[in-house]
Amino acid sequence: MQQIAATARPAGEGERQQLSAAVAAYLRERIVSGKLRAGEYLRANAIAGELGVSATPVREGLLLLASEALVQRVPRHGFMVGSFTREDLRDIFWTQATIGAELAARAVKYMSDSELVQLQGINVRHEQALAERDEVMLARLGHEFHRSINLAARSPRLASVMGSLTKQLPNRFYASIEGHGAGAVAYHPLITQAIRVGDAQAVHALMFRHIASGAEHLITAFERQGLWA
To answer: What keywords tag this UniProt record (predicted)?
Structure first.
């Protein structure tokens, strides 16, 4: 393991929260990718030593993962890696698709002309990135596309819930979805056009299918890696 941060001085509250989030993100990636298997015990002190942080942010990170059902707290034994199945992955994407579709439908009512122009510009750059096979830029622009729509919905609490849900999978998995080719990118101009003409029902349906389809892409990728062999 690589060290996340040095512990030469006591961490303030904000810094400790950042460390906790970093520890959780690191362990989340290892659990979801199958590097840590269901039933393995996770010892806070051992993880702290390997990552170069104190035990406190590690415990907080593990509690965060417990709230996501990725680990289980076992009395007198610490934490144990929970199961992560195909249905778990489908549930995550179904929930994201449901909320994302609602946010997109609301954006039809509230998106300004300037925001729509910005969204169209993202699509142009997205197509260029696809032609250049720039997966890093595809992922970045995919995130920007969805974030722009979520903000345009003028529903900050619902958007915050969506943000919390997206954190349940490592960023590189979303990058894989947005970068895997024309299949993902093709939805963006369709959604943008439906927003432009004010068809909230079409926007809702398109966004739901767009997000939900990501689950099957990841399931296929994980099966190739032997996660659910």
So the answer is: DNA-binding, Transcription, Transcription regulation
